[in-house]
Amino acid sequence: MRIRGERGAEKNQLNMTSMIDVVFLLLIFFVMTFKIVEMEGDFSVRMPLASDAAAVTDPTDLPLKLRMTADANGNLSSMLLNDSSLGNDPAAFDRLRASIVDIVGTTAPIEGDEGPEIEIDADYSLRYENVIRAFTAVSGYKDGNQIVKLIEKVKFAKPRM
Questions:
Q1: pTM of the complete model beyond 0.70
Q2: TM spans, by residue (predicted)?
Q3: 90 and 134 in contact (C-beta within 8 Å)?
Q4: Distances from the Cα of 99 to the Cαs of 79, 91, 107, in angstroms?
Q5: What's the CATH fold of domain 64-156?
Q6: Do the bridges between strand 64-70 and strand 84-85 make them parallel or antiparallel, or are there none, so unpaired?
């Protein structure tokens, strides 16, 4: 005897074709959008060569230090370049430029060489015009129609109060 309401047990199967298509589309998307980047941490560090203690060091290897002090009115009272006095008169900035030319020279730096560096250490109360004149003296000058660059890397020390 057969009962009308019963049917044979049907299997429910999942169609995997569309799932595999989606996986391949995602794979293609990530392969196409992958960007190869340079290795991180690849620094070009120039280490000094081992040498004797009596060897002469190049003054442009270390940052040059320009110390500018002010009097009570904010005027320039003294200017020192690597502990050598340049004075405090208006011609002191010309002497500063001449000293930088003697140390650095007027030739362009070699390809890949960053060139010399100077650190300006000025009193907090020093008038701004003196700092700008010193910055102008160390960065370069105009010779006729040609601009001669001296030091391009200038940094400032923390202000002294």
A1: no
A2: 20-37
A3: no
A4: 12, 12, 15
A5: Nucleotidyltransferase; domain 5 (3.30.420)
A6: unpaired
